[in-house]
Design goal:
Keywords: DNA-binding, Transcription, Transcription regulation. Residues 3-63 form the HTH tetR-type domain. Residues 26-45 bind DNA. The protein is mostly helical and 196 residues long. It has one domain (48-192): Tetracycline Repressor, domain 2, CATH 1.10.357. It contains nine helices and no strands. The protein has helices spanning 3-19, 27-34, 38-44, 48-73, 77-93, 99-105, 112-140, 148-169, 177-195. The chain starts with a helix and ends with a helix.
């Protein structure tokens, strides 16, 4: 199996995972979409768990590079946060759930190794959001009434929840309404706390 076939398998599996779920696709589905036999898939990915683990690790690597690119382009943390939120809109426009959301939706059915990777991915996003919010607190002199980690959790929850609702409804009506409102509320509330 060539490296391009392996990449094609990972791409098709990612689309399947983000649109149908990990449990809903099989090697037969992948083989039919790519035009190879199942034995060829087993050559590189002996089990579906191996495929899932490599897919998640690859996705996390790409996502981390994207976050680095966002940081390099935007010195202002608020712009970084807004660009982060647009990653979720892009997924919704493609009819896909964010990978973390898709995996979390069937967490109990996932192999333990994939559950751990899903948790690690959520934690890495929360860490990035926390660090970026800390940068915003420093740069914009925000005074928060709750720990930064709590706001990071709220921001990610808003994006993941909105993505899930948009995906279920088959439309993207207000994908960033909650996220943007929360950011604006943070800035306004911080101004009042500083003034008070």
């Amino acid at each position: 199996m060539s490296i391009t076939t392996k990449a094609a398998l990972l791409n098709v599996a990612e689309t399947q995972m983000r649109s149908r779920g990990y449990s809903a696709f099989s090697y037969a589905d992948l083989a039919a979409q790519i035009g190879i036999n199942k034995a060829s898939i087993h050559h590189h990915f002996p089990t579906k768990e191996c495929l899932g683990a490599e897919l998640i690790k690859d996705y996390i690597h790409r996502f981390t590079k994207t976050l680095g690119s966002i940081e390099a382009r935007h010195p202002d943390p608020l712009l970084r946060l807004r660009e982060f939120s647009r990653l979720f809109v892009a997924s919704a426009h493609d009819g896909l759930l964010p990978l973390c959301g898709a995996l979390a939706a069937e967490m109990a059915a996932l192999p333990i190794s994939l559950q751990e990777l899903t948790r690690e991915f959520f934690e890495s996003q929360l860490d990035w959001l926390t660090a970026t919010l800390n940068d915003a607190v420093q740069l914009h002199h925000w005074l928060l009434d709750k720990p930064v980690e709590e706001y990071a959790f709220m921001l990610l929850s808003t994006l993941e929840g909105s993505s899930l609702i948009d995906w279920a409804l088959g439309r993207s009506t207000y994908p960033l309404a909650g996220f943007n409102h929360l950011l604006e509320t943070l800035a306004i509330r911080s101004s009042f706390l500083l003034a008070g």
